[in-house]
Amino acid sequence: MLAVPAVLREEPRFRLLWWGQTLSVFGDMVKPVALAFAVLDIGSTGDLAVVVAAGLAPFALFAVAGGVWTDRLGRREVMIASDLVRFVVQAAIAALLLTGEAEVWMLAALTAVFGTADAMFSPALAGLITETVPPARIQDANAVLALTRNMATIGGPLLAAVLIASSGTGEAIAVDAVTFALSAAILWRLPRTAARSSGDEHPPFGEALRAGWAVIRRRSWLMGGLGAEAVYTVVVLPSVFVLGPVLAKQDLNGASSWAVIVAAYGAGSILGNVAALRWRPSRPMVAVGGMLIIASSQAAIIGSGLGTGGIAALEAVAGVGVALYWTLWDTTIQSQVPPEAVARVASYDYGIAVGLMPVGLLVAVPVSDALGLHATLHLMTVAGVLAALLLLALPGVRALRRP
User: Fold this and answer.
1) Is 251 helix (H, G, I), strand (E, B) or coil?
2) Could you tell me where the DSSP H helices lie in 74-204?
3) Do 359 and 280 touch, CB atoms closer than 8 A?
4) What is the pTM of this model?
5) Spans of the chain, pLDDT less than 50
């Protein structure tokens, strides 16, 4: 039996944060499945793409602003407000579906509001973690939260399938709404966090944004890491979200093969999260670059032609690399950036990691049509690996030491 990590046993504030995140993350994994089937019940595949894009686009627009507002209002307070907004949005969607009044434009508009609140929540969470655990346990906290998310990626869709089959999409979305209300109630129990600046100390909004960017520009490892992350997000990840299912349909056994591959990747991610509880690389950004090389191999693995079993086995290895990459990257930001700037730097990070994703999703299909599916998948990995090697070539990356 796995032991409960010390960060959960011995850090009561983090334990509260973890409980709230566990509830909302499992609800989050219910939402995509339930919302997809709800949209397809009343619209087309194109309508589903519009609704999904409506939820992602706000990250490009509001994630960076979220870091500034977090510093002004307090991290806990922004997270509570975000949870309450998402509760109202999901409750409204559930009501529309249950009454049969839902239309695609309504779901797209509400999903955009949800995405905006989500964009504000993520930088605040990155900053609040540093306030709930001592510096030596930041990596453990990130690993535990990531482990919970990856377990939810397996359990959440199964829960969604049961709820949809037994009740319906409206009821499944209603369950998701409740998880946000519970998360807000748990966050309320955390000690109030002071805003990073108050009263007349608030700099103008543009100046606060520039100050956050200045923190990034002064650190070559951070600039390089964000650049490599942008390549991974825009170029490599579409292989998982778009081209992977296409290849499974064309070359393998369709949805059943893709389910096996995704499950294997999820199992590898969980192993990576467990490893992150123990591995403390002395040169964290060198480790980040190495894990990014493994993560970037996902596209070539999918296009390898090895069949379902071979692809699944290698995707499990890639899952270990992806989990370690994100955990070590987040931990390095939180431990190497001044505490008062963590939320603003994280806002740029989330803006790249999520906000740029729609660009890659839109470009991947026409590129694969022009070059061929397998060739495109291999070129995706080449681009990701080159970005990681350029990151590793930076002197600031190799010189950075774990505090």
Assistant:
1) helix
2) 75-99, 104-132, 138-166, 169-188
3) no
4) 0.74
5) 1, 196-200
